[in-house]
Write a structure and sequence with these properties.
By secondary structure, this protein is of the alpha+beta class. It folds into three domains: 215 residues, no CATH class; 64 residues, no CATH class; 61 residues, no CATH class. It is built from 18 helices and eleven strands. Helix 2 crosses helix 3, helix 12 runs antiparallel to helix 13 and helix 13 crosses helix 15. It is elongated.
């Protein structure tokens, strides 16, 4: 019996990559929806692996982007046999060949997996490589221990607190000050560990340098962790590859339905937040997606509550916020307030945050059925037999054997009984029995273990 599923994709790419011996090294999957979303919103790419989803023990790598309303969207997935840099580079090459907009990636966020980072550096040389802060602090906590560093529990607590303070340094001057204090007050083993492992890559995980890159305010891979939890909730652990892809496709369809629902909510639902008519808040709310509008309103609140800017002009570069997120920062808004200008402006806002731009792209994800390709997934259905089913099948065979044993003369009867007794002894010892036809006149059969 077979299970057959017919799934409709738009411009699907499913490639099985093998080595020179024909052994599978990775499986790459991406469909038209993923390609279109990535081409529109490629600036920030998150990459991470999750495990134990398939019965072939291949880790699943998920590539994730952030949409105009802050939604998470899977833009490619691939399974690999090995987790080394050459295998990952090969999979990323497949991604690049299918996505000509890969040059528009500004930032890639990963954990501290050396193979992932090496592959990203080789295949995306133009990007800023960021480290997930959660994984950074967790790695520090695992290494800075009383046994590994020969320190007391109190020293460990103070060291971890100081390391967290370094991660949240808001400027390079603050970082340098905290680092100098750390070097003079912490045990030498902790200082050596930090200098060798974390100071050299500080631009990838310290706040003051992270926010100089396109991260949309993200400092962790929590979005990916959330998607991985959903994958594990939908896909049964240790699934066969046909079942894995069936459940994966179901989850992708669910995520896309959620995205369409969000777009409909933006366009059709009446907002319960009422701003004064003609105010900057109402204009930003009408022009931007809810996610972008919430960010701008936070900056507007900072501008209203912050100290006066003095002699700062609109031509001065106040911070990197507007350059890395594509929205006005509180300095720009405060300058416009101080100059008695209209606070609302779309100048400098990236098109990805405009509500009109999001709605114009909506039709791109509603491609007609004529553009779809049918992919058939066939699985041989093998269901374990129950004890009763096994007994009934053996009962029918046993009746046939009894009939054959009782036929013929006494000599043949005793010979066949001997064969059955030997077979029983072999099976009782959990051995393997082979039936071999004896080439003799009486056509006796013998059992070999």
């Amino acid at each position: 019996m077979q299970d057959i599923w017919v799934v409709y994709f738009i411009d699907p790419d499913l490639e099985i990559i093998t080595d020179s011996d024909g052994a599978v090294t990775s499986i790459f999957f991406q469909d038209g929806h993923m390609k279109k979303f990535f081409s529109l919103y490629p600036e920030l790419l998150m990459l991470d692996a999750t495990y134990k989803l398939t019965n072939v023990r291949m880790p699943l790598y998920v590539m994730l982007c952030v949409g105009p309303n802050g939604e998470s969207e899977i833009v490619a997935v691939f399974l690999t046999v090995r987790e080394d840099a050459p295998t990952l580079c090969e999979a990323l090459d497949r991604f690049k060949s299918r996505n000509p907009h890969w040059n528009n990636i500004c930032t890639v966020m990963t954990d501290k997996d050396l193979a992932e980072r090496e592959a990203v550096k080789q295949k995306f040389p133009q990007v800023a490589l960021m480290l997930c802060l959660f994984h950074v602090l967790r790695a520090m906590s695992r290494e800075v221990t009383t046994s590994k560093m020969s320190i007391t529990e109190e020293q460990r607590g103070r060291a971890l607190q100081a390391l967290q303070g370094l991660a949240y340094a808001k400027s390079d001057e603050e970082y340098n000050s905290l680092r100098e204090s750390f070097r003079t007050s912490m045990p030498q083993t902790v200082v050596q560990y930090y200098e060798a492992n974390w100071h050299t890559c500080r631009h990838e995980w310290v706040l003051c340098w992270q926010r100089q890159n396109v991260t949309f305010g993200e400092r962790t891979n929590n979005r990916l962790e959330s998607v991985n939890k959903r994958l594990k909730a939908v896909i049964k652990s240790g699934s066969s590859l046909p079942n894995f892809f069936k459940d994966l496709i179901a989850m992708l369809a669910c995520m896309r339905m959620e995205r369409h629902h969000t777009i409909l909510s933006v366009t059709d639902k009446v907002s319960v937040k009422h701003y004064p008519v003609g105010s900057a808040q109402s204009k930003f709310s009408a022009a931007l997606t809810p996610f972008a509008c919430s960010l701008v309103l936070k900056q507007l609140k900072l501008a209203e509550d912050g100290p006066p800017l003095g002699d700062v002009t609109a031509h001065d570069r106040c911070c990197s916020y507007s350059e890395t997120i594509g929205l006005p920062c509180h300095h720009m808004l405060a300058i416009r307030m101080q100059a008695k200008e209209s606070v609302f402006t779309l100048q400098g806002i990236w098109p990805r945050w405009l509500k009109a731009d999001m709605l114009s792209h909506r039709q791109l994800f509603n491609t007609a059925d004529a553009d779809t390709t049918a992919v058939t997934i066939t699985q041989q259905k093998v269901r374990p037999l129950t004890l009763n089913e096994k007994f009934q099948r053996c009962k029918r065979l046993g009746q046939t054997v009894i009939g054959l044993v009782c036929e013929g003369g006494s000599e043949q009867f005793h010979s066949r009984i001997a064969v059955l007794n030997r077979l029983i002894r072999v099976w009782q010892k959990e051995g393997i029995a082979i039936i071999k036809h004896a080439d003799c006149e009486d056509e006796n059969e013998e059992v070999q273990a």
